[in-house]
Structures are given as C-alpha cells and as structure tokens.
Amino acid sequence: MIRHIPESEFPEFVAALWGKQGWQTTVTEKSGKSFVALQRDGAEGLIWTKPGTGNAVSGQELQQFVGICKKFGVNEGAVVTPGTFSEDAEKLGSQAGVQLVDGEKLRTIVEARELHDLVERFADGGGDEPDSDEDGFSLPISIPESVPLPDEVPRKAVTVVFVAILAIVAATVVAPMILGTGGTVQTNGGWNVTANSTAPTDATGALDVRWNAKRVSKLNPESGDDGVYKPDDGEEFLLVSMNVTNAGSDSLGLRPQAFALRSNGTLHGHQPLKNATGFQPSVLDGGESTSVWLVFSIDADAPNATIVTTGRLRRDHVRTEFSHDETLTVET
C-alpha cells in the first residue's frame, strides 16, 4: 500500500507518520525537493522525503543532503523513500550518521505501530494535513546544486529520528499551562502517579476527567481470545481508568491518542492490545460522559509517572481538568 501513495502525497504522509511519534512537523518545499522539519523536546531534525520507487537513492543525492544538514547544523537527519538506496548511499549514510528509511523499513514501522489506516488514507489521496502540532518550525533551507564534502564524513552520535519511531512508546507533545497535578496515587510496587491538568489560552471546550490507576504485571481482558498480555522485559503495565465528561456545550471528539504518560523523561503513548480495547473513539455531546481505560507500558523501576494530554486536544482548544477518584474501579 505504501507504494500506492501518490508522489505528491508522500511528504505529507511522512510528516503524519512522524507526527504519530510526537514530533512537531513542517513540510518544506525547496528547489523541487520536499523536506520535513522536526522538533520535539528541544531536539530538531530534518527528513528528506524522496518519493518514487524507480531508481535507488544514489550516493551523490545523499551527499547533497548530508551537506545541507552540515550547513545548517542539523544534528538529526533521515532520508525516507518508498524505494531503495544504492550501496554508495548506504555507506555514506553510515559514515555520516544519517538514517536511511527504505520501503521495507516503512512497512515495518506501519506494522509495528498498526498504522495501516494512515497508509490507506494517503493511498486514497485523502491525506489532509500531517498529524502534528500547528506550531511546527521550518529551516532556512537553500538547496545548492552541489555540495563539496570531504572523502570521509565524520561519524555522528547515534541519531534518534528513526530509532524513536520504531520504539514501542509513542512520544507526544504536551499542551502548555499546567494547572495542577489532579491528585496522586501510590501504586503497588512504588510508582507515584499524577495527572496534569492543562488549559490552552484560547480554550473553547472543556473535559473533566476523573481517574484512578494501578500497576499490573500482566493483563487478561475479556476479549474472547483468552490471551494474556505481558509487557517487555524490564517494564510493567500501568492500567488507567477514566470517567470523561464533556463539560462544555459543543460536541467533542475523544480518542485514546489524546492521552499519554510521561515517565523517566519519555512520553509514552497507550499500548494497543489486539482483540481488546477499553477506549473506542467517540463523540461526546455537551454534558455527556463515558468510562474508558488505557494501558501504558513503562520501566518497572521508574519512580514516577504522570498522565498528560496531547497536542490533539490543544489543537481542538480543549481545557482538560483531572481529578483523582480513588473510588473509581480500575479493571479491564
């Protein structure tokens, strides 16, 4: 399906794919080439999107991109194509620390993150705008015809642009203006769990969220498949139950991606479970409530964890107020 994405839609698809991992993205067109500028938690990066599956990306083309990164001080660079890379390009990418993402790696990302619907949307030509924050950034890119480079490009530190997207956690961008912790719960096992209420300055909608949480080493939801879900080695699950109320008058869309968990300096997206879900996307009318649950997989030795809202709610101008409710049942 990735090969069926129109070339004109491919840069927006890449921006949306990285937006799913919490990067703020901005698509930039310069000299007939398409780039995606990235920003997250003080880190910046640049992706050159190379549509087409015909000729492999050559070493000369990659050398030009490396030169652009060096010229503008971009520390994290990646080239993304639905096609392939030549041997010269792979060698140069390894030397320069530029991540090379070909069609096979793109398919791996989509499979790992279960983002087939995103591919289908762009393959059908229905991709509107990248799933990223509105306040992205751009780089003053001026593409020269050729960029002279030394024979040996110094190896950079391991980049995070591609590594992060394959990680099981999905980082997200937290809305500004923290109002309070929304209560605290001490889980069995030592995690101190809190929740951050937020309010964009232009808030026009409001959600009141009662929540409770507990730490579990495995899950066995009544999903019909009798499966037992276990976290990766060194991690455990945090099960969060929420009662969400639309405190405004206008209808609001609600999706699990609107919530995340900050722990050990990383923002974690919810852990999807096959054949089981406690949070179906829905629309809440004014005054309407719904009860949902989410699962996060985080380091077992993490001292703290904080439930937060993501940029999705900020873009929808929604104030979110959390309050801990110890009477709320935490179960799947």
What does it look like?
This protein has 332 residues and is an alpha+beta fold. It folds into 2 domains: 2-166, 3-Layer(aba) Sandwich (Trna Endonuclease, Chain: A, domain 1); 178-324, Sandwich (Immunoglobulin-like). The protein has 7 helices and 18 strands. The strands form 5 sheets. A 5-stranded mixed beta sheet has the order 1-2-3-4-5, sandwiched between helices. Strands 7-8-17-13-14 form a 5-stranded mixed beta sheet. Strands 16-11-10-18 form a 4-stranded mixed beta sheet. The longest helix is centred in the first third of the chain and has 13 residues, at 59-71. It is elongated. The two termini are 34 Å apart. Keywords: Membrane, Signal, Transmembrane, Transmembrane helix. The chain crosses the membrane at residues 157-179.
Summarize, please.
Pfam families: DUF4352 (PF11611), Mrr_cat (PF04471). This protein has helices at residues 10-19, 59-71, 87-96, 103-113, 116-123, 161-166, 311-315; strands at residues 24-30, 33-40, 43-49, 76-80, 99-101, 178-180, 184-186, 192-195, 197-198, 205-216, 235-246, 252-254, 259-263, 266-268, 282-284, 289-299, 304-309, 318-324.
